[in-house]
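Justification of resources, computational component.

The compute hours requested in this renewal are based largely on the per-chain cost of generating structure records like the one below. Each record pairs the submitted sequence with a full structure-token output. That output is archived, and it is also reused by downstream analysis tasks.
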Amino acid sequence: MAARSGEKEALDAVRQNQLLCERVRKELRCQRLHTQYSLNPLHPVHTITKKPMSWHDNTEEPADAKFLNLIHHAALEPTKKYSEPQTESQEIGWNTTPLVSKVLKDSTLRRIRRGSAHRTERYSCKKIICDKHGKQE
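The structure output for this chain reads:
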């Protein structure tokens, strides 16, 4: 009657021991100790390469001089690798040597006219009004 009302009867020590033994038998039936391991021949294993930046993996291999020269040559900037620009975008800025020496002996080239900056500021603020066709009004 206690089972119908939702209350459980208190288990005595004998019944608890029977439940424990039954549970242990079920676990032991499904449990196996595996000591011999092998690869499954039907399942291919993908090997993972070594990490290139780890020092302990590369200690046994000697450094290849040809490979190091190739890496260092690839890291150079284009002006040191090639005698001429290889692409159109390299043509801009290929020759970085100044055309005029920085030591100017002529004092007229070094003189900055006073007031020139003031005049350019005054004209740069001028507002230009255009119509819808782009012509100035």
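Residues 13-30 form the longest helix (18 residues). Residues 118-124 have pLDDT under 50 and may be disordered.
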